[in-house]
Amino acid sequence: MCSYIVRKAALTGSAKGPNGWMRIDTANVYFDHPYHAPLEHALAIDFINAADGGRERVAVELSAQSARGLVNQILAALQSGKPSTIPTRPRRNDRPAPGPQRCQAGNLKTKSDNDP
């Protein structure tokens, strides 16, 4: 089903593209035929900085099942975050936000739907 409907979400964040890190302020989300993913249809998300003209983008194409799983993991990660560490407004300086905390082994701690 191709609806040609693009949903826009206002964001505050950064994304890493082919030219390095960039600020993003908009996500364009749509379900259509993918450009690259080997799927009949895909949920596509284009992350752009519309305030800067949207010349660069970081794009992802996901199967519907993968997109739903990702949404669940995003919600779970937000739920498990400590309220005192979640910022209520954007940072005001030009430095990138600090990266995720690393465990002692130097790897990110991850949890999937299959973990207890």
Order of helices and strands: EEEEH
Q: What structural category arises from helix and sheet content?
A: alpha+beta
- The share of residues in extended strands comes to 25-35%
Strand order of the largest sheet: 1-2-3-4
What are the low-pLDDT stretches, counting only 5+ consecutive residues below 50? 96-114
Kindly state the mean pLDDT as a whole number? 79
Distance between the termini: 36 Å
Largest sheet: 4 strands, antiparallel
The portion of residues assigned to helices is: 10-25%
Description:
The structure is a single chain. The chain has 116 residues and is α+β, with helices and mostly antiparallel strands. The chain has a domain at 7-83. It is built from one helix and four strands; from the N terminus they run E-E-E-E-H. The chain has one helix at residues 64-80, and strands at 7-17, 20-32, 42-48, 57-62. It has a four-stranded antiparallel beta sheet. Strand 1 (7-17) and strand 2 form a beta hairpin. The longest helix has 17 residues, at 64-80. It is globular, with a radius of gyration of 16 Å. Mean pLDDT is 79; it is low at 96-114.
Secondary structure blueprint with pairings:
Elements: E1 7-17, E2 20-32, E3 42-48, E4 57-62, H1 64-80
In short:
By secondary structure, the protein is α+β, with helices and mostly antiparallel strands. The protein has one helix at residues 64-80; strands at residues 7-17, 20-32, 42-48, 57-62.
Question: What descriptors fit this protein?
Answer:
32% strand, 116 residues, 4 strands, four-stranded antiparallel beta sheet, disordered C terminus, alpha+beta, 1 helix, single chain
